[in-house]
Structure formats: C-alpha cells, structure tokens
Amino acid sequence: MRVPDISVEVAGLALANPLMPAAGPLTSSPKAAERIAATGVGAIVAKTISVAAAEVPHPNIARLPYGLLNCELWSEDPPERWFSEYLPAFKALGRPLIVSLGYKPDEVRELIPKAEPFADAFELSTHYVGTDPRPLYEIAKAAKETTEKPVFIKLSPHVPNIEEFARAAEEGGADGLVAINSLGPGLAIDIRRRKPLLGGEHGYGWLSGPAIKPIALRAVYDVSRTVEIPVIGVGGIASAEDVVEFFMAGASAVQILSAAILEGVKVFSEILKELPNLLSELGVESLRDLVGVVHG
Ligand SMILES: Cc1cc2nc3c(=O)[nH]c(=O)nc-3n(C[C@H](O)[C@H](O)[C@H](O)COP(=O)(O)O)c2cc1C
Prior knowledge:
By secondary structure, the protein is α/β, with parallel strands linked by helices. The protein is 34% helix and 20% strand.
C-alpha cells in the first residue's frame, strides 16, 4: 500500500496536513509562531486580535492533572502592532494563515480590512456570547460582507444548544466552523495559599486539554451532522489516535493547543510522523475518507 495521504481541504484551503495550532499563546508573537511553523503544521492560526490590547490577570495559566485552566483573553499586544509587524512576519512563514478576530460585528468590520493583506482565512471567536445564537448569524454576515476569504466561526461549548449556534453561523454565510473553545468557567484553589490558582476577581478560568476531549468530540459530531459547511475540531487532541477520532466524528482538520503547552511543541511533529503509520494500520488510503464515518 502507498503511504496514506494526510493532505486535506477545508473551505477551499488546501493544507499539506490537518494540523494547526489553536488560537492562543503558541501564536501570540512571530517568534512563538516560528517555532510552531518549524514543526511542519499545515496552517497557522494566530492569537485572537481585537480592537484594543487585552488586560489579562496574572497568573493566567494553571496546569491541572487533566489539562489547563486559563484566564487569558485576546492578544495583549495592540492591534496596530499586529497589522504593522506581527502579521507580515506570520505571512512570511509560508503557511496558510488563519487570522483570529473578535468579537462584535462592527469590530470585525473594522479589523478585517487591516488583516486582509496577510490572511488566507479568518476565524471569529464567539466566546463571549450568551444564550442567544443570533450574534453568530450577525458576526458571520458582517465578516462575509467585508471579505471574500473563507470565514470560520469558532463555537464555544457553554451554550444551551450548539447545533442552533452552528446553524446561525451557517445561515450568516460562514464557510466553516471551529469546535470547540475552552470550557467553563471553572475554578481551582491552591489550598496552601488559600487562594485561587488564577488571578482576576474570582480566579475563574477556562478548561482545556484532555479533560474536554469527549465534549469537543461530541460537539464536532453534533454540529457536523447539522450543517453542510466543514468543521475544524479542537479540544484535548494530543495524539494521532485523537486526530483520527475527530475526523471520524466529522472534523475536516484539527487544532491543538494544550497538549503543546503541556508536552512541548514536538507534539505536532510527532503526530505528523505517526499519522501515516496509523492510517496504514487502519487500512485507510486518505485521511479525507474518514470524515464523519461514525455518522452512519
Ligand atoms: C492559554 C490559552 C489561551 C487561549 N487563547 C485563545 C484565544 O485567544 N482565542 C481563541 O479563540 N481561543 C483561545 N484559547 C482556546 C484554544 O484555542 C482551544 O480552543 C482550547 O484550548 C481547546 O483546545 P486544546 O484542548 O487543544 O487546548 C486559548 C486556550 C488556552 C489554553
């Protein structure tokens, strides 16, 4: 049998392989992104940019036995720095670049034209929406009125009915979905200091890593059965087996963050090495053949 094909296509983006870093600290500066590109990932997703630099409590990341808890927001660097310095350097890495933006329709209308020269696609975070799916329709529509490039809407898991949110994004014109963002909020306490592990008013943070993998898989399964547009899976992925599981649930590409923080960025190169072997073992010629196979 030939070496299995791990190239994928998602919303018109042709990727040499399905792996990308999820929006976060792995891609919050050109130097960080350069380390990720060197692992061989198929695309880069930049840290979320908004209309002003975020002010983030400290400490903002805690390691737990089953994942990470974080209270990072969007980028702590001003958007002007992203447009004049960071995004040109990200583009020079020579990988498809997905620029993550937030959070309101007007903000996205303002940010997209500035990022457009560097972006191959956009990913819009909807982390701070409430229980109404309407804002997802509106943000997708605003973005599609501003750019012809593919627009992905990233879904958060703390919504009452994720399928409705997925449908709202699709009806607004989104070209794809990313599922899921971190889960919570949650709390972890340092019993010796008698304080939360994280800074901020209550010490709340968002859970990611192995603990959320079953929830992310279920979300990918549910939304990919609901909409026609492709889904990028994210949440707790740490191995080639996990990648295959997400494809079987309905993902067309995947993102990784916590595993690369917990185990180092080598997780990307290790998965890229292992994935063709695993597909051979499973008798699969192309990763694309696995998308949604458990849907029945
Ligand atoms: C420290 C940290 C920072 C993050 N920052 C962002 C962000 O800026 N924008 C965003 O859309 N998601 C952000 N996320 C969520 C991740 O992109 C991802 O959706 C989530 O962590 C689940 O994937 P994982 O289990 O592989 O980490 C962040 C997650 C962590 C742990």
